[in-house]
Amino acid sequence: DIVMTQSPATLSVSPGERATLSCRASQSVNSNLAWYQQKPGQAPRLLIYGASTRATGVPARFSGSGSGTEFTLTISSLQSEDFAIYYCLQYNNWPPGYTFGQGTKLEIK
Amino acid sequence: QVQLVESGGGVVQPGGSLRLSCAASGYSFSGQGLHWVRQAPGKGLEWVAFIHYDGSNQYQVDSVKGRFTVSKDNSKNTLYLQMNSLRVEDTAVYYCVKHFGTGQNWFDSWGQGTLVIVSS
């Protein structure tokens, strides 16, 4: 099974600064990686798919990069509404399964 | 606009059964597959099950195989998850999630979830 490891577990950043979140796969997932944002009490929201394509309505300050085993989600200038938990998802070995990372909590510094 | 509304959660004893429903609207229900994804309290996300757009194929995570069955009624635009032999570790919010498209295998729209608590 593919294991997805996100780092760091918690990231403290000030509003207006840049945030860089990492996701590593235990084997290549090509570009079959998505990023989701989840706020407390809400369902996850799709941000990025195909490692670097923003979903409809996602602000341009969110960008994704990487391929193979190393991926990055960058938020260029943090807004108050960006503080949340971010999950990566690999869908390279679908079917039969998917794997999420354990999440990175982005908190206000 | 895609809407997914889950229902059917509640408290059940270990070994019991529960059926979750997900009412869909705003897109061609019969044209896309659907997933169930769960999240234990304070924990991360776990994919649980998938059903193909026409019900012809289903997949489940190993931990629920033989206990959970996913089905869909295209005439009612509704997805179901029949959960039997429930265990304490099945306690979670269960989300209904739309598959983006054929060959585009990420999760698209999510419902708000329904909470299942397995406890004696």
Level of helix content of chain B? under 10%
Q: How many extended strands of chain A?
A: 11
Shape summary of chain B: globular
Number of helices of chain B: 0
Task: Quote the distance from N terminus to C terminus of chain B.
Answer: 40 Å
Order of helices and strands of chain B: EEEEEEEEEEE
Low-confidence stretches of chain A: none
- Give the overall average pLDDT of chain B: 95
**Gap between N and C termini of chain A:** 36 Å
Largest interchain contact: A-B, 23 and 20 residues
Rg of chain B (CA only)? 13 Å
Rounded to the nearest angstrom, the radius of gyration of chain A is 13 Å
Class by SSE composition of chain A: mainly beta
Task: Report the helical percentage of chain A.
Answer: under 10%
Structural class of chain B: mainly beta
Number of strands of chain B: 11
Q: What's the pLDDT, averaged over the residues of chain A?
A: 96
Order of helices and strands of chain A: EEEEEEEEEEE
Strand-residue proportion of chain A: over 45%
Q: What is the general shape of chain A?
A: globular
DSSP helical segment count of chain A: 0
